[in-house]
């Protein structure tokens, strides 16, 4: 029996060596080119040669790179190893990265204090605030980590919650519902990714809605939290998560791609200014990016983004038929993607800001401009550590100084009143716009209000408003309006801040979405613009 095992291992080793030989032959140019440059005097020093070759072999220049990652991962597992390329295969066969784990009390304490100051600002504005901690893949009650590796994720979350609790800020800790036991983790997380799956996100949706209902003394109703109202879709072996991409699909397998779609009727929109896009229709049209359902691609697509399409600076959900006529602001990291889609069925407006990418104003300014009824912030353990050392600053865009009182903005000088604009675009006009007859000055804040928008011919779901820099010939600020939502809700208001640097700024209205105005006519009625102070 031992001889058979040894022969089997020898066969696997020979196959692996043969593959290495073939890969080396096919990618010989990655070695030959740097050496050739050295011979011809284009490269100085042997160290530079080796550095270039090493960079080539981890770049996209490496032919069949993904197959090599897969086969290498298989070989490592056949050798009995559970740690590879900074990835741990846990005892429940889930993958976890550990090279970025940290337990830095100073960063956690600093971020906790910033969060508390932000909550006090919201309290001064009489805006309710809910802080939520996302679960992690390490269960609280079961030790599934390899020997010698500490449970830093749960230690970090516990420390952060304790810090903000000392200041009187409560936390909704989703670990109690999703990662208390190994069984909960197995059900709630993708095996090859650090994110939860939509099964886990839906439980979070139920828990958060119940918490909101408690805060509002039953004035908020839960219409769509019953799992029976949703259809669960599962595409087998469709997804290789960000952790799995490091070790290949043969190290611990792949995941099924899961998404939920409602069985009830929906009509809504999702606006993503960063993408110059409005997605309008039913829940699936608005929230599900169908390219992840249509094609399977383990290495070149992140199918976790099947909801929403990824992390954007700002996304805006609009649902005029929502049962709760409230305006919610979500401050998020990537865990929020499926959750924001679920919440969009319950609330009329759900604005979503990712502070790692949103830079056009502070969060405090956005809140004063939009006056949401509730602010929810959710962090997973990795973003609790965001600071300047990793160039991903989650807690530094609040714009709140506890020494300075921030008051609500006031209406200043009126620059335009009851102005009407009608635009018509031919089939060839993809950028039909009109510059409003006002002067925009650097460093100031303005508000534009529009009483009515209607299409005069053609079809468009939305229209664009732009702050444009004519000197640099680039878009500075971008707002997209859902025409039908605006029609039913009434006046649309957009407040924006102009950059400090002087330039030739213009405020433009479009006959459709920027770059997509072909064969569309739009009439704007009752435009007002005033300076905000």
Largest sheet: 8 strands, mixed
Oligomer: single chain
> What is the rounded distance between the termini?
83 Å
Estimate the mean pLDDT confidence. Answer: 89
Total of helices: 16
> What's the total number of strands?
21
Characteristics of this structure?
533 residues; alpha+beta; 8-stranded mixed sheet; 4-stranded antiparallel sheet; 16 helices
Write the layout of secondary structure elements.
Blueprint: H1 2-26, H2 29-39, H3 46-57, H4 65-78, E1 83-84, E2 87-89, E3 95-97, H5 105-124, E4 129-133, H6 152-166, E5 172-173, H7 175-178, H8 182-188, H9 198-215, E6 230-239, H10 244-247, H11 249-252, E7 255-262, E8 268-272, E9 277-281, H12 283-287, H13 291-294, E10 314-318, E11 324-331, H14 336-343, E12 347-353, H15 363-370, E13 374-379, E14 411-424, E15 433-435, E16 445-457, E17 462-469, E18 474-482, H16 483-489, E19 492-497, E20 505-510, E21 521-532
Parallel strand pairs: 4-5, 4-13, 11-12, 11-13
Antiparallel strand pairs: 1-2, 2-3, 6-7, 8-9, 8-10, 10-12, 14-21, 15-20, 16-19, 16-21, 17-18, 17-20
Helix pairs in contact: 1-4, 2-3, 5-6, 9-14
Explain how this protein is built.
The chain starts with a helix and ends with a strand. Strand 1 and strand 2 (87-89) form a beta hairpin. The chain has 533 residues and is an alpha+beta fold. It has 16 helices and 21 strands. An eight-stranded mixed β-sheet has the order 5-4-13-11-12-10-8-9, with helices on both faces. The chain has a four-stranded antiparallel β-sheet with strand order 14-21-16-19. 38% of the residues are buried. The longest helix has 25 residues, at 2-26. The protein has helices at 2-26, 29-39, 46-57, 65-78, 105-124, 152-166, 175-178, 182-188, 198-215, 244-247, 249-252, 283-287, 291-294, 336-343, 363-370, 483-489; strands at residues 83-84, 87-89, 95-97, 129-133, 172-173, 230-239, 255-262, 268-272, 277-281, 314-318, 324-331, 347-353, 374-379, 411-424, 433-435, 445-457, 462-469, 474-482, 492-497, 505-510, 521-532. Helix 2 (29-39) runs antiparallel to helix 3 and helix 5 crosses helix 6 (152-166).
């Amino acid at each position: 029996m031992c001889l058979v095992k040894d022969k089997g291992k020898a066969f696997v080793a020979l196959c692996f060596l043969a593959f290495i030989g073939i890969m080396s032959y096919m990618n010989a140019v990655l070695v030959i080119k740097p050496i050739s440059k050295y011979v011809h005097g284009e490269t100085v020093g042997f160290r530079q040669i080796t550095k270039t070759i090493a960079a080539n072999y981890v770049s996209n220049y490496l032919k069949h790179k993904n197959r090599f990652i897969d086969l290498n991962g298989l070989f490592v597992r056949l050798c009995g190893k559970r740690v590879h390329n900074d990835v741990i295969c846990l005892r429940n066969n889930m993958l976890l990265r550990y090279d970025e784990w940290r337990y830095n009390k100073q960063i956690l304490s600093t971020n906790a204090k910033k969060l508390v100051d932000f909550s006090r600002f919201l309290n001064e504005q009489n805006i309710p605030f809910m802080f939520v901690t996302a679960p992690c893949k390490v269960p609280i009650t079961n030790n599934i980590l390899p020997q010698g590796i500490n449970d830093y994720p749960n230690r970090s979350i516990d420390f952060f919650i304790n810090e903000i609790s000392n200041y009187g800020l409560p936390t909704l800790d989703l670990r109690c519902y999703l990662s208390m036991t190994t069984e909960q983790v197995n059900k709630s997380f993708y095996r090859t990714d650090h994110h939860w799956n939509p099964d886990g996100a839906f439980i979070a949706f139920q828990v958060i809605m119940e918490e909101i209902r408690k805060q509002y003394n039953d004035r908020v109703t839960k219409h769509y939290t019953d799992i029976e109202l949703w259809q669960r879709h599962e595409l087998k072996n469709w997804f290789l998560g960000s952790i799995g991409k490091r070790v290949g699909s043969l190290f611990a397998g792949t995941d099924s791609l899961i998404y939920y779609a409602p069985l009830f009727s929906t009509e809504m929109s999702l606006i993503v200014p960063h993408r110059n896009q409005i997605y309008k229709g039913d829940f699936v049209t608005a929230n599900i990016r169908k390219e992840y359902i249509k094609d399977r691609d383990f290495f070149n697509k992140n199918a976790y983004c099947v909801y929403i399409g990824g992390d954007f600076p700002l996304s805006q959900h609009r649902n005029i038929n929502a049962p709760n006529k409230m305006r919610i602001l979500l401050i998020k990291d990537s865990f929020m993607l499926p959750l924001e889609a679920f919440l969009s069925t319950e609330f009329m407006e759900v604005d979503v800001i990712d502070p790692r990418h949103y830079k056009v104003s502070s969060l405090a300014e956005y809140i004063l401009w939009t006056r949401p009824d509730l602010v929810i912030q959710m962090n997973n353990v990795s973003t609790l550590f965001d600071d300047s050392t990793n160039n991903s600053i989650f807690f530094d865009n609040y714009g709140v100084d506890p020494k300075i009182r921030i008051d609500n903005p006031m209406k200043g000088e009126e620059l335009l009143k009851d102005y009407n604009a009608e635009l018509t675009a031919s089939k060839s006009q993809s950028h039909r716009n009109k510059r409003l007859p006002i002067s925009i000055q650097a460093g100031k804040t303005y508000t534009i209000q529009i009483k009515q928008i209607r299409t005069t011919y053609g079809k468009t779901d939305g229209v664009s408003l732009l702050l444009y820099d004519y000197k640099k010939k680039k878009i500075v600020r971008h707002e997209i309006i859902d025409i039908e939502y605006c029609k039913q809700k009434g006046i649309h208001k957009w407040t924006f801040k102009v950059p400090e640097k002087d330039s030739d700024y213009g405020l433009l209205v479009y006959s459709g979405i920027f770059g997509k105005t072909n064969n569309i006519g739009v009439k704007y009625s009752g435009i007002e613009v005033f300076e905000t102070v």
